[in-house]
Amino acid sequence: MTDEKLPILLVPDKRLRLKARPVGPADQDAVRALAPRMLATMYAAPGIGLAAPQIGSDLRLIVVDVAGKEETPAPMVLVNPEITAASTQTDIREEGCLSLPGQYADVERPARIKLRWLELDGTKREMEADGLLGVCLQHEIDHLNGVLFVDHLSALKRNMMLRKLAKDLKSRTRDD
Ligand code: K2U
Ligand code: ZN
């Protein structure tokens, strides 16, 4: 099945810290096969975004759908996404991450961004995003650079969360 779910890597998996490489023409088939599976994985989590490094791929590819449960799905596949401008004005929003289950914290990010990317068929796109979509896109593009939302927190807060995550995961593996 083309949209078979994929396992989501969890911190401290080293692959979450790699800098993903740009999608090139040679990656066309891989990306066409991966995108629907990333969307299926994201919806099943459930999540509103997913970046290729989270399923162990080093490609600069993200999928996003911030449509709420009651709205019609609005899936987006973004190849080689780049933030080209960001507002000085920031917003603070509580974030989570499918690779750091159960950990949530307030993160401050630019309120509005301009980004450009390629669609699966190579069409160049650009748009402005703010609100939840803006945060989600920044969160996913961070993943392509090996950056996790905890990296935007104070060292104290980050270490507290990573220690708690390690404890939770240890107890989870003990229970399994
Ligand atoms: O990349 C991921 O791990 C999926 C993230 C994306 C995200 C994080 C924070 C803020 C916006 C998007 C989430 O785990 S998806 C789960 C979720 C659902 C609704 C609102 C926020 C997060
Ligand atoms: Zn994440």
Walk me through what this model shows:
This protein has 176 residues and is an alpha+beta fold. The protein has a single domain, classed as Alpha-Beta Complex (Peptide Deformylase), CATH 3.90.45. It has three helices and seven strands; from the N terminus they run H-E-E-E-E-E-E-E-H-H. It has helices spanning 28-44, 131-144, 155-175; strands at residues 49-51, 61-64, 76-86, 90-95, 105-110, 112-118, 124-130. A five-stranded antiparallel β-sheet has the order 1-2-3-6-7. Strands 4-5 form a two-stranded antiparallel sheet. A hairpin with a 5-residue loop joins strand 6 (112-118) and strand 7 (124-130). The two termini are 28 Å apart. The mean pLDDT is 95. The chain binds ligand K2U and zinc ion. Ligand K2U binds at residues 47-51, 95-99, 135-136, 139-140, 143.
Q: Characteristics of this structure?
A:
alpha+beta; binds zinc ion; 176 residues; 5-stranded antiparallel sheet; globular; two-stranded antiparallel sheet; Peptide Deformylase; binds ligand K2U
